[in-house]
Amino acid sequence: MLVLHNQTFIDRDEAVVDIEDRGYQFGDGVYEVIRYYDGQWFLLDDHLDRLQYSLNEAEIDFDVQVNNVKARLNDLIEHNHIQDGGVYLQITRGVAPRNHPYPDKQAPTLIAYPLNLKRPLDDQQNGIHTITAKDFRWLRCDIKSLNLLGNVMTKQKALNAGASEAIFYRDEIHVTEGSSTNVFIVRDGTLVTHPADHYILNGITRRYLLNLADKLNIPYQIEVFSLNTLKQADEVFVTSTSAEIKPVVSIDDKKIGDGTPGTITNTLLEHYFDDINITKLP
Ligand code: PDD
Questions:
Q1: Closest ligand 1 atom to 204 CA
Q2: Which of 15, 220, 231, 254 lies 20 to 30 Å from 65 when distance is taken between CA atoms?
Q3: ipTM above 0.95, yes or no
């Protein structure tokens, strides 16, 4: 496997992290996971726009366009002969002697390499089991930051409980998102999802879904909902680049609907499959 390191390609075995890289020491960096389907990027420009947003918010001095990230990612796909899969891309504030303040001169480190992503067809057919978990993360979840300790601890909690995703809540009346996904509910034929504010990551798949709902004339509301509303919903599903759309069939051992993937969720999934070759959100 060839890995992109700043502007050059190196063999996977030669790709090492400097012990003083701030991404490694402080989680001082941002990332993207981008899908590539059947020889084509899925929503690449939208991911690159969000990457620039995360960089700007984190005050990491890196310009995605000036550094030709898109062209390098195309090279990465070509060098690794990827037909179907994805790419992991991260940019840290770079290497500097350990000290909390930003270094005077930032020299960000970029790495990108292929991910062997597979379509999650079994989960999409059967639906997934989930738990709820207190959202104890920081209050800038809109930045796609490398600091994922809260997310990984909570994902593990879900797995330990025999589930595959955890749905975060700040308090009883405020459900936010999943440990690595955004959350949607269907209530009386209307989709509901959390506003794109500092409490959640504004998922590219979430935005894709809202566009799709517009196209299909499925009404939606962008609003905060409670744990009670979540568990009483007619349908629940989660979205992400790797999960695509996954129906949720139980939450904390309580069945959602009749315990099988819902009708609106399945309709959205079918359209997702048809749309896999779209390259940009409108
Ligand atoms: N996770 N919320 C969180 C906390 C996430 O980590 C993710 C994505 C999403 C969905 O974002 P998008 O639709 O842009 O993938 C929401 C990625 C895939 C990951 O960390 O692997």
A1: 14
A2: 15
A3: yes
Spot the catalytic one: 118, 144, 215, 231: 144
- What pLDDT was estimated at residue 234? 98
Q: How far, in Å, from the CA of 182 to the mean position of ligand 1? A: 7
- The DSSP element (H or E) to which 236 belongs, if any, is strand 235-240
Average pLDDT over every residue of 33-41: 97
**Distance (Å, rounded) from C-alpha 191 to C-alpha 213?**
8
> pTM for the full model?
0.97
Q: Whose CA is nearest to atom 3 of ligand 1?
A: 180
Q: Is there a contact between 23 and 92 (Cβ–Cβ < 8 Å)? A: yes
Domains of the chain as residue ranges with CATH: 2-115 (3.30.470.10), 121-275 (3.20.10.10)
| Mean pLDDT, residues 24-51 | 98
Cβ(165) – ligand 1 distance below 6 Å: no
Residue 163 has a pLDDT of 98
pLDDT band for 282, please (50, 70, 90 cuts). confident
Q: What is the mean pLDDT of residues 3-10?
A: 97
Whether 144 is catalytic is yes
Answer whether 128's CB lies under 8 Å from 164's CB.
yes
Angle between helices 69-79 and 44-57 (to 10 degrees): 130
- If you take atom 19 of ligand 1, which residue's CA is the nearest one? 180
The reply to whether ligand 1 has any atom less than 6 angstroms from the CB of 154 is no
